[in-house]
């Protein structure tokens, strides 16, 4: 039986924070801000994309990512939840 990926809320908050600070984010910038090993970072990015929270946007030949509307809603709920459980 394959174990389903379960993202950590605090790590997701790191991803959300960088999107709020920058809007469009390159993969390298996102990776460095996440402070994760590459293999774990790619799992988070794939999870965010497969759940339609983040999409790839070509931006003048630069590979950038941006939050979708669903990603914005998820991030608002996540931040509210994490603020409540501090």
Provide an overview of this structure.
With 86 residues, the protein is an alpha+beta fold. It has one domain (9-84): Arc Repressor Mutant, subunit A. It has helices at 9-22, 27-34, 38-50, 69-84, and strands at 25-26, 54-59, 62-67. Strands 1-3-2 form a three-stranded antiparallel beta sheet. A hairpin with a 2-residue loop joins β2 and β3 (62-67). The termini are far apart. The mean pLDDT is 91.
Concise description?
The protein has 86 residues and is of the alpha+beta class.
Radius of gyration: 13 Å
Principal-axis shape equals globular
Helix content: 55-70%
Structural class: alpha+beta
Number of strands: 3
Task: Sketch the topology as an H/E string, one letter per element.
Answer: HEHHEEH
- Quickly give the CATH architecture: Orthogonal Bundle
CATH hierarchy class name: Mainly Alpha
Protein topology:
Blueprint: H1 9-22, E1 25-26, H2 27-34, H3 38-50, E2 54-59, E3 62-67, H4 69-84
Antiparallel strand pairs: 1-3, 2-3
Describe this protein with a few key phrases:
single chain; 86 residues; alpha+beta; Arc Repressor Mutant, subunit A; 3-stranded antiparallel beta sheet; 59% helix
């Amino acid at each position: 039986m394959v174990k389903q990926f379960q993202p950590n809320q605090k790590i997701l908050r790191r991803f959300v924070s960088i999107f709020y600070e920058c809007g469009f984010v390159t993969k390298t910038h996102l990776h460095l801000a996440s402070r994760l090993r590459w293999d774990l970072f790619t799992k988070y990015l794939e999870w965010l994309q497969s759940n339609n929270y983040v999409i790839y946007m070509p931006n003048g030949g630069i590979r950038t990512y941006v939050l979708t509307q669903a990603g914005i809603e998820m991030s608002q709920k996540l931040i509210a939840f994490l603020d409540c459980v501090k």
